[in-house]
Amino acid sequence: MGLTIAQKIIKAHLISGEMTRGSEIALRIDQTLTQDATGTMAYLEFEAIGIPRVKTELSVAYIDHNTLQSGFENADDHRYIQSVCAKHGIRFSRPGNGICHQVHLERFSRPGKTLIGSDSHTPTGGGIGMLAFGAGGMDVAVAMGGGAYYITMPGMIKVNLTGKLRPWVSAKDVSLEILRILSVKGGVGYIIEWGGEGIKTLSVPERATITNMGTELGATTSIFPSDEITKAFLASQGREADFVELCSDEDAVYDRVIDIDLSALEPLMACPHSPDNIKKASELGEVKVDQVCIGSCTNSSLRDMLRVAAILKGKKISDSVSLSVSPGSKQVLAMLSDCGALGDILAAGARVLECACGPCIGMGFSPNSAGVSLRTFNRNFEGRSGTKDAQVYLVSPEIAAASALTGYITDPRALGDYPDISLPESFKIDDSAVLMPLEGEAAEKAQILRGPNIKPFPKTEPLSDEIRACATLKVGDNITTDHIMPAGAKILPYRSNIPKLSEYCFAVCDESFPQRAKEAEKSFVIGGSNYGQGSSREHAALVPLYLGVKAVIAKSFARIHAANLINAGIIPLCFEDPEDYDKIAQGDMLTLSDIGTSLKTSEFTLTNNTNNAVIKLKGEFSQRQQGMLLAGGLLPYTKTN
């Protein structure tokens, strides 16, 4: 039996475990990346492990999230990260150099390599044939120290593309189509491999758009073959030597095969408030638009920006629309400027923001009250934009530009002829904003610079055999990490200050939760299906840890968040019968007993002391995960093992 592309890379990097679906496997990691919203905590964890120098082939720290320096907190975090990088062997991408996934794709990604990043959209690297995973910062810290990255061996889904995209239809529409087919939880437990004759019509940036949004499916990761198109992209970046051809075997076996005809797709949109709430642009009628944002790690490549510039050239945006454009990297911005496309964008009335995540994580450019915002981003969760009642739609650059011109949601095909663009054969190379680490004695003597906002890692304790505590919060289905630990300009500066950050935990759902949890000292959280979808932010586990949450009981979990809970020493458990969710009310007193034995049998018993209900729970944990939970989390487990 042949192997898929992902299986080939897994086999080449397998440290332990069997490549059978559902088994825990350990992988050797070649590269890591962090960004500044998660990086400070990841490097505090790396320091706690006590290894003087990273052991990966390449580790890069990017500053792209918390670039709004309205106080000392973000600047202090950046200074801390830069000093850690210099001392411990990590490259440092300065603020303004670009969004981590865009820069990594341009300058560091390599087909056939493994990559984990403390950002859920790290699978962007799959567009060039990397096996790239989003992970919690603690997992990244362990990998930098030479440790393995553990995942459950996933199943494989093959998506066969045929045909060619028609004018005004883009790779973003492919992403939205697969979300329409599978939903935000349809990819859980799978790696998605893209193939078929249709992939030959897609450039690496277009492929990266598709793998980027595979995260929204809940997929473990997504990957394209490495072929002549990959080779041409690497050559354009002066990195042709990094090329390795990768393809699946003809007799590779997949759990499911999905066929998509590119030539049959239309411009699509994800309507509020979920990436899988898909409708055709032609179906929405006249919806007035207040704001348009173009950029993010999904759609900020030179290809995307040139397309937008060509659509806007010689025109003016609607008086009622505010338009922002965020190039994905310094390279993209410089090349837009050199060719005159930046001038076309500015002349149309756009505001050009710095090369950073910005509005995507609520870091500035929030919509007006109840405003309609069209964004070329990957998530439209309620409140993520920074405006709680905003109506956010996810769209292609083509729909975004067309709607900015008309002031209404517009099917871009109404604009007529599709403007031609041409990409250069070689890109402008300037890596001066990526600072190299110190070496030898200079590294040994280097000092780590810490600001007063950087607080210690939350205290953990070994797991007891019985937990008797209150259900301090009960929430519904599809709770995201944005619900658990919101982003935005007001909150992100406290990412290295868990005590302060805890004041905002679950604020989207229940502003009184933090105080209630503190008063209870220890507690349970009850959730619905797909609990913890979205960002890889480990703060959504570390803050509940600080607030005394001992276990989260839900109908089902998103992969990364479940792993982060275990890393933090919090037990993620599922209802054996999902209907038992209704047997617990917020405020009920619960007892989880005989935990040590239950970890081994995967069968748990929860007693609701308030109504005397006895509820069966399940939680399958590997021997390593059992040890982590008993030790109080990954850090104490790593120190003793």
Search tags:
641 residues; alpha/beta; seven-stranded mixed β-barrel; six-stranded mixed beta sheet
Molecular structure report:
The chain is of the alpha/beta class. 29% of the residues lie in helices and 19% in strands. The longest helix is centred in the first third of the chain and has 17 residues. The mean pLDDT is 96.
Short description:
The chain has 641 residues and is α/β, with parallel strands linked by helices.
Q: Sketch the major β-sheet.
A: 7 strands, mixed, barrel
Number of helices: 21
Structural class: alpha/beta
What multimeric state do the chains show? single chain
Determine the strand fraction and express it as a percent band. Answer: 15-25%
Write the layout of secondary structure elements.
Blueprint: H1 5-13, E1 14-16, E2 24-27, E3 31-35, H2 36-49, E4 58-62, H3 72-88, E5 91-93, H4 100-107, E6 114-117, E7 131-134, H5 137-144, E8 149-152, E9 155-162, H6 171-182, E10 190-195, H7 204-212, E11 221-223, H8 228-236, E12 256-261, E13 268-270, E14 278-280, E15 291-294, H9 302-312, E16 322-325, H10 330-339, H11 341-347, E17 351-352, E18 372-375, E19 391-394, H12 397-406, E20 434-435, H13 440-445, E21 467-474, H14 481-484, H15 498-501, H16 513-520, E22 523-526, H17 539-546, E23 549-554, H18 559-568, E24 571-575, E25 589-593, H19 595-601, E26 603-608, E27 614-618, H20 623-631, H21 634-640
Parallel strand pairs: 3-4, 3-6, 4-5, 6-7, 9-10, 9-12, 10-11, 15-16, 15-18, 16-17, 18-19, 21-22, 22-23, 23-24
Antiparallel strand pairs: 1-2, 2-8, 5-20, 13-14, 21-25, 24-27, 25-26, 26-27
